Amino acid sequence: GSVKAQKLLFSNTNFGDLNYLFSGYFDTNIGNKKEKDSYVKIANHIGLEPREVLFLSDNPEEIAAAASAGMNVVRLVRPSDAEHIKDFPYSQVESFNEIKI
């Protein structure tokens, strides 16, 4: 989604405004979400090395691109619309509580 939509979404949660938790907001203006270079640009934009970033997504192709850039990755499995992928090379969780940092 757009940067504006992301900020709006995270400002109106059941837990209040969560925008303070994010270092930056990005949409396809930074690049294709399925290409490594986009994730390198994101890390540079927020002033971190890719290895210092945890990237979460439900899209396996985005996960693979972020991992190829050197980011830590976790695939979010939504019980209503996805399943764990057998032999997927990266972590898969159904809840944020399952993420180990």
List keywords for this structure.
about 100 residues; Rossmann fold; globular; 3 strands; 2 domains; alpha/beta; about 10% strand
How would you explain this protein's 3D organization?
- Helix content is 28%, strand content 12%.
- With 101 residues, the chain is of the alpha/beta class.
- The mean pLDDT is 92.
- The protein has a 3-stranded parallel beta sheet, covered by helices on one side.
- Helix 2 crosses helix 3.
- The chain folds into 2 domains: 1-30, no CATH class; 33-101, Rossmann fold, CATH 3.40.50.1000.
- This is Acireductone synthase.
- One of its GO terms (biological process) is L-methionine salvage from methylthioadenosine.
- One of its GO terms (molecular function) is acireductone synthase activity.
TL;DR?
The protein is an alpha/beta fold. It has 3 helices and 3 strands.
Question: Helix count, per DSSP?
Answer: 3
Radius of gyration: 14 Å
- Tally of DSSP β-strands: 3
Helix/sheet category:
alpha/beta
The biggest beta sheet, please? 3 strands, parallel
Shape: globular
Task: Please give the structural blueprint.
Layout: H1 3-11, H2 36-45, E1 54-57, H3 60-68, E2 72-76, E3 91-93
Parallel strand pairs: 1-2, 2-3
Helix pairs in contact: 2-3
Protein name: Acireductone synthase
GO biological process, one term: L-methionine salvage from methylthioadenosine
InterPro entries: HAD-like_sf (IPR036412), HAD-SF_hydro_IA (IPR006439), HAD_sf (IPR023214)
